[in-house]
Amino acid sequence: MTVASALASFALVAGLLTIVPGADTALVLRVAVAQGRRHAYATAAGICTGALIWGAAAAAGVSALLLASSTAYAVMRVAGAAYLVVIGALMIRDAWRSRKAAAPPEGATAAEAQADPGTPIANGSPRAGRSAWRSFGRGFLTNLLNPKVGLFYVALLPQFLPDGVPALPMGVLLALVHDAEAMIWFALLIGGVDLARRWWTGSGRTAARVRRAIDALAGTVLVALGLRLAADR
Question: Are 226 and 88 in contact (CB under 8 A)?
């Protein structure tokens, strides 16, 4: 197997796995809706950085410790599961709070209720002022604390390491290919959110409803994935 054929084969497999919905996709989609494009790209960059570290660790043999030690895997599994559940629960809480805040006061007329824009999205939201580094860190930890990402690289990378090629630089190169595909996928998601925002722009109530729906959906997905990871043996 040549380097070129290894890269092409790995790109095909990793590309198919990239578009399978998971915690990363749910998180980027939610951030794109709630905080805007800048924060969504920062989150995506954090996720890809975590994947790159896992890829380098797998190539260096560090991630193989997860396979060799049940204790090491259990620690990573519990930490990752707890993080996903907490992040998901916070999203569900935000959806519930914004729903209560958007409810018209008792006795309000229909016109007054319609005029209430609810909680704005993206640049109008209080969250929009938060540092993009915080979004980067959330994406980074979401990926880095998931031991299944490490096991994915441990299982997959050896099959695409050509004979006579140093494992570490080749592993990093393969991880970069995976990151490039992930960023393309995330860019499509973020661009889709931008297009969708055009039809809900001008209706603050519609924007608030979309944000609440995405918060609730993404939060539920992350909690479910966290519980699934916690139960994994």
Answer: yes
